[in-house]
Amino acid sequence: MKVQISSVDQGDGKRLMVMLAGPSDMHPEGGGQPGDSGELHWDGGRAKVLNTLKGGLLDVLPEKGSLVQGIEVCLDRDESRNALLSRMHSAEHVLSRVMENLKPG
Length: 105
Prior knowledge:
Layout: E1 2-10, E2 16-20, E3 38-42, E4 45-53, E5 57-64, E6 72-77, H1 79-102
Antiparallel strand pairs: 1-2, 1-6, 2-5, 3-4, 3-6, 4-5
């Protein structure tokens, strides 16, 4: 999926916090669930997406090239990890219901 970079801020060490200009198919962390991960790539560059946060914010680790405001990048979600997280999330709902049925309140 093609997305535009709205802003780039220095994170921890070599990591960057990247804000996307529009929506993406990445699910942010929240409610105890980890966010999606994946990869950004663009002409002359590549970065690992370590985590997705609310509001279109990505925690990234550049591997090659520079990420700058305004460039268009290709965002690829790690589909196998996403599928695993989705199954874990559903299983936690089932487990919560079983626990609630065993001990209401």
